[in-house]
Every structure is written in structure tokens, then in C-alpha cells.
Amino acid sequence: xxxxxxxxxxxxxxxxxxxQEGSTAPTTPAGKFLASLSIQQILLAVILAVFLWQWFDAHxxxxxxxxxxxxxxxxxxxxxxxxxxxxxxxQESMRELSVKVSVLETHSAEAQSQRAALESFYQDLTExxxxxxxxxxxxxxxIAGQQLQLSANVKxxxxxxxxADDRLKRMDRAAFNELRRAISHxxxxxxxxxxxxxxxxxxxxxxxxxxxxxxxxxxDIAHASLEKEITIVPPAGEENTWKKLIxxxxxxxxxxxRIENMxxxxxxxxxxxxxxxxxxxxxxxxxxxRLALLSHDEAxxxxxxxxxxxxxxxxxxxTSTAGKLFVFNLQSLxxxxxxxxxxxxxxxxxxxxxxxxxxxxxxx
Length: 364
Fold this sequence. Notes:
Blueprint: H1 18-22, H2 29-36, H3 39-150, H4 154-171, H5 177-191, H6 198-211, H7 218-230, H8 241-256, H9 272-294, H10 298-315, H11 321-335, H12 346-363
Helix pairs in contact: 3-4, 3-12, 4-5, 5-12, 6-9, 6-11, 9-10, 10-11
């Protein structure tokens, strides 16, 4: 182990190993060197070679590890720089997002305040709209009641009630169902009434009043026929002087002398002033019948028409076309019945007023 060579043992020729005798001595320097080494030296050399080889291999692995570590460090450095850039971008994005979030929060607060204002405004608008609709419905119901009370116009009152019901129907509110029931009940009352066309009768009376001034009087027809009778048409040819004188004298005699049946019941001739008042009184009779029609007073209505018909038959020419048509219209109007019992439609009006008062109490 110390590296010191032991002296070779002396060999005796007589006792030499036949193998050694048969082997040949190494002749090369390496062989001589190997032959001169002992087993311990060879073992030591092998161990040294293994150690050198392990050291070299470890050195190579260490170099590889250093290179890999350097590469990884370089990659990590690049990644760190990229992460720093990304981090800066993220920070900038976060700052922008924070600004946007603050702006959105501001807008959200404004939107909430506006929403609250809109809800308050919508509530006020809804209440105001309900109040407006109820006011319109109340006005329509008042018109219906006035049409029935003042002019007994059932058709106009029915139209007003239907318009009020349609106005509530368009609102589509469950709170208005009771009001609609009351209005529908009043509508059913009016629909059960007999159909009396007051407007048509009123229009026909107006036409008769306008035609009074053009009605011919009996005395006008009689005077015209008398003048026609006493008028002598001269002959077409030449007339002798004596014949002309005799014709004129005969015409004068017929004018002075008139033969009539004194037992015949005829009216005296009316002066123009009395003819004017006769026509005006006839108009007043028809106007009175018109007022009785609007108030549905059938007794006065028929009495005025009967009186007007009597006057027409007594003083006017009923044989003419205008006279016949006038008397026919008077008779037709007299046969029309206007006697209807008007119902009370104030229930729906009271219901609307009560509902409006309840809304006013709730709002206060």
C-alpha cells in the first residue's frame, strides 16, 4: 500500500515452476511494467481509474446542470419580464376598470334616483289619469241624465252611457268593475224602453212649420176661380164693334151681380192681416206640439196636432197636393205614440262620484 516494491524471491533452478519455465518473459515496456506491478498496485490503479471516471462524469453532469440551470434562469428571467409587463397591463386594466366601475356606480345611483322619481311620477300620473277618466265618465253620465230630463232623448242618453262604459273598459282596471256594473244596469233600463224616434218626429214638425207659408187658402182658390169664370176670352178672329161693346157690358153686369146659395156654410173672407195671424197661430200650435214631444206629454201633443189639423181643413185648400200632404203628415204624427216612462239613471252617476271621493281620501 506504501508503493514500495518488494525484492523478488530467489528462484532455484531445481525448484522452478514448470509453467514459469514454459512461459516466455515479456519483451515490451508496457508488459514489463505490468509484470513488475503487484496485485495491490493493479487494484489501486483500477480504483483510481474508476474514481477518475466518476469524477469526470460528475463534472460533465455538473456542467450540464449548470447549463440547464442557466437556461432555466434565462427563461425565468424572460418570464419574469413578461410577467412584469403583463402585471403592468393588468394593473392598468384594473385602474381603468376601477374608473369605469366608479362611473357605473355614479350612473347607477343616478338611474336609481331617476327610477324613484319616475315611479313617483308614474304613481302621480296614474292617479291623475284615473281622476281624469272618472271626471270624463261623470260628465258623460251627467249628459245622459240631462238628455233624459230635459229633452227625453233616450237615444242620446244611451249613447252617452255606452261611451262612458267604453271609456272605463279601455282602462282595463279591476277597480272599475263595480262602476261598469252600475252603468250596464242603467243601459239595460234604457234598452227596454219603447223605441220613440224623437229626432225624426221633431224634424217632421219643423218641415210642416216651414210649409205653412206656402199652403193655399180656400178663399184664394175661390177668388181665382171666380175671376177665371167671369173672364171672357175674345174670339180669335176680327170682332165687330157692337159685339165688343155688348161683351164688355155683359162682363160688367156679371161683376156687379152675383148669384150664390146663401144656405151654404162657407167661411167669410179673411183680410190679409188675419191670414197672416192664421198662419202664425198654426205655427204656434205645431211649436207647442214640439215642446210637448220633448217633454213626452202625449195629451198636449195630440191636442195641438188635432187643432192644427182642424184649422188646416177649415181654412186651407186640402184638395191641392200641398194640402193633402200636409194633412197626411199631421195625421201620421198624431198617430205616433210618445208616451214613455223615463227611468232613473242616477245610480251610475252616484257610484262614480262616491268612487272619486274615496280616491281623494286615499290620496290625502
